[in-house]
Every structure is written in C-alpha cells, then in structure tokens.
Amino acid sequence: MNPPNFFAQGTGLGLRRDFAEEVLRTPPDVDFYEVAPENWMRFGGRLGKQFRALTERFPFVCHGLSLSLGGPAPLDEDFLLELKAFLSEHQIRLYSEHLSYCGDDGLLYDLMPIPFTSEAVDYVASRIRRVQDILEQRIAIENISYYAAPGKEMQEIDFLNAVLQEADCGLLIDINNIHVNSVNHGYDANAFLCAIPGERIVYAHIAGHYVEAADFLVDTHGATIIDPVWKLLDSAYDRFGVFPTLLERDFNIPPLAELMQEVETIRSIQNNPKFQHG
C-alpha cells in the first residue's frame, strides 16, 4: 500500500512548452506533470490561458529552480508569497526544490553543492522549515548531482538524511543523480539507496546524462536513460515499493511520442508482478 504522502500514482512527465499544445490537443497516457514555477507563474495572455487549461485537466507538481535553499542571501519571501498564490490558483499538489544553492545577490543559473557539514545541516534545515511555514505545506528536497565537495565533513548520504530529519520535509529522489554521483565519487549506488529513509520519498525523477569519461558523468537531462539507471529504479521499487516517477528531459527534446517510450518503460517497471501486492 502506498504511503499517505504520495500525491499521485504512476508516471509523470516534465511539461515543456515545445509540446504543451499537443498535450492539450491529444493527451498522452501520463498520470501527472511537473513544471518549474519560475517558467510559468508570471505569464498571462495565451501562455497563461494554456497553462490554466492544463492544470484544470491534469494533476501538476512544481519543481523550483531559484530558491537557493543553501545560499547565503536571505530567502526571497516575496517570491514565496507569489509562489504560494500560484500553487493555490492552479491546485498544485506538491512543491519541491533542490538541496543546493544557486547564487547570492544574483542567480548563477547552476546548482552548487552545499558543504556537507553539520553547520550546513542546521542552516539549510532552518530555511526549509521557514519555506514550509510560509507556504503552509510540507515541501520535498531533491538530492542533486555534484562534481566537487568543498568543506566536506560527512558523507553525502549522511548529510541528506540529517537535513531530511531536521527539516522534517519530504524527499524527491533523483535516481539518475545517485548513479552519476556514484560513478563520479566512487561509491556504491545501491548502498546509498538502501540508506535512504523510504518513508520520506514523495516521488522520483529519472533522466539521462552525458558520459564525459568512464569515471566522469555529467548530469544533463538531455539524453536517453541508460540501463544501469533503469536497474537502479527497479532496485528502489524493490526496496521501498512503487512510488510516482517522472521523466525529466530538459534539452535535446525529441517528439512527445519518443518521450512517451521512456514513460512507458517506467510504467512497465512499475507494473512488474513482483511489485504487485494483494
């Protein structure tokens, strides 16, 4: 039986403007959609009406890009109030953000790793709690891919678990990021997976990446998903049960029909008889 924190069932797809009109015209077999609120919340006119039409018909979640939970600048509480109104207007079922930072006085347009320290745990957890207070809802944080760990005092998994515990928030588990980090930093992906508190998982991302070298992967969301990542998703379901899982594709975006082939792969793994319990 699914835990009560699951907002939806089945498979999801990151909505892109490239195919938003096609989704409205001929809806594919997708259970929920995800958008970055920063890309939609200030649009009116044709795009605003199109998004309203979509959220009236389909379940949506929001995955933020700019909150900079681990950044040194104060939280943008004006943005959070605007976001709160947007979530309410469109009946968005969940808001998530990256366990990272992306700037100080300005945005870097990249996701930087928070130092894996106890001081950083306290800092970012307090900011997550403040976000939850303003939004009046529990949010989820996503484990990010990273390429350096400045100031590291603890392992990534210990840092992640400490933040989840102290902030009392949900987890958006990114399967590809676990694989990418395991290759780049030389740890066992399944051991990392086994150490995650499964009761905090609210949904998952799965995506492709770029192979720079055998021991250096770049998290791009711009390629098809490879077999080890699919196997890691299978292992996650095996350990925690089936949870909602969303396909991310942020560039090199193929036709919707091609994306749906990967969505169907997610569904086929979810529907494996070994995960079906009476």
From TrEMBL:
Domain of life of the organism encoding this protein: Bacteria
Protein name: UPF0276 protein DM484_15145
Organism: Candidatus Methylumidiphilus alinenensis
InterPro entries: MbnB/TglH/ChrH, Xyl_isomerase-like_sf
Short name of any one Pfam family annotated for the protein: MbnB_TglH_ChrH
Family of this protein: Belongs to the UPF0276 family.
